[in-house]
Amino acid sequence: MADDQLGEEYTCRVCGFRYDTPTWDGGSGSHDICLCCGTQFGYQDTVLDGVWSVRAKWAAEGHQWSSPEFRPPDWEPGTQLAQVPDRWADASVLAFKLSAPPLPAMRTSADPEAQRAEVLGRFLRDGRLTHFPATGREWTIVLEHIAAGFEPGVKYRRLEIDKLLKAWHGKPADLLSRLTDQGFVANDDQYYWRAER
Length: 197
Prior knowledge:
By secondary structure, this protein is an alpha+beta fold. The chain is 35% helix and 9% strand. The protein has helices at residues 48-60, 77-81, 91-97, 112-123, 136-147, 158-166, 172-181, and strands spanning 24-25, 28-29, 124-125, 128-129, 155-157, 185-187, 191-194.
């Protein structure tokens, strides 16, 4: 396997930002939003023309970060663009690939509780989810927090759980889908309940 393909599923096809969880799993994007360029994995980056178009728009806007709190202090767009896998590169990216130094690592906290508090602080305001997380790790922290609000052993009908989740965000169906997919909530034909993890 070529060096360029190592970890390709962990790299944004548009801007080259690398993640600690896959942005693509086989043929499916995670549908998370890139912290750097704002691309939705599996939507805007499925075909070469789409990748190039989004990259050109991002460049025209001055390489603005969608989540600026994750921008490394010594970040430089050309260095990061050099991390774009070759098959998604255009002429501007290929020029950077010839001379780019290694990319700085993504900022993470060594303390899990501090990391949890940081993530919850970015996504929750006044007990509500302000916007959906961009990475799987952030989703896990947020979903775990939301699921902790369900009473253990209590079974909820769909209307009840929708009402509870609507208090968190205006899209309760999306939250419920994430909670069940990630194993925080279990269900049968009639009821939903907090899963044991």
